[in-house]
Input
Amino acid sequence: MPRLESCAWSCSCAARGRHNAQLGDAAAGLAAKVGEMLSSSVSSPSLTLVGPGARSPSTASTSATSTTTGSSTLNLSQHLVQRSVVLFVVGAFMALVLNLLQIQRNVTLFPDEVISTLFSSAWWVPPCCGTAAAVVGLLYPCIDSHLGEPHKFKREWASVMRCIAVFVGINHASAKLDFANNVQLSLTLAALSLGLWWTFDRSRSGLGLGITIAFVATLITQFLVYNGVYQYTSPDFLYIRSWLPCIFFSGGVTVGNIGRQLAMGIPEKPHND
Output
C-alpha cells in the first residue's frame, strides 16, 4: 500500500508539473504577443493620441497650410502696395516733367488761376497721372497672368530705362518738332510709338492695352477740354491735337513695362482653359 500511495503521489505531482509548465508556456506566449502589439502600435505612424490636448495629423497639416496661405497672402498684399506706391510716384514725376515741357512750348494752356507757382502746372495733373500710372502698371501683369502669356521679352531694368528714355523723347518731339501740318507730326509720332512697342514689348496684350488706354485717355481729354478745364493751341482733332493718342499709347506701354518689371518677384499664375 505505501508503494501504491507513493506511486499515485508521484503521478499527481508529475501531472501537476506538466500543467504548470503548460500554463507558464501560455503566459510567456501571451506576454510575447502583447509586447509585439505594443511595439507595432508605437512604431505605427497612424497612431493618434486621445485626450483633451491631442491634435490629429490632419488638423496639424490643415493649420500649417492655413498659416502658410495667410503669410503668402500678406506678402502679396504688401508687394501690391509697394508696387502701387512706386508706380504712383513715377507717374506723378513724369507728368510734372512732361507737362512742364508742353506748357513751356505753349502746346498746352491752363487758366491762370489753376497754375501752380512751384511746378508751373495744374495741381491735379500729378495725382491724376500718378493714379492712372498705378492702375495701368498693375493691370499689365494681371492681364498677362489671366491670358497665360507671361511677358519675358527684355525683362531687365536696363531695357525699362531705355523705354522710358524713348518715351520722353517722343513727348519731347511732339513739342519741339515743326512740321508743315499736324497730320505729318501725328504720323511720325505714331510710327515712333509703334516702334517703341515693337522694341520693348512685342506682346499682343501690350498692343491691345496700349490702344485701349490711348482711346480712353483721348475721350477723357476731349471731355476736359470741352468743359474748359484746359485747352490746346491749334487743335486739329476735335478739341485736341491729333498726335495726343500716340503719346497716350507710348505712355501706356512704358508704364506697363515698369509694372511688369516690378511684378517679376511674384510667381506666375498658371492659365486654365
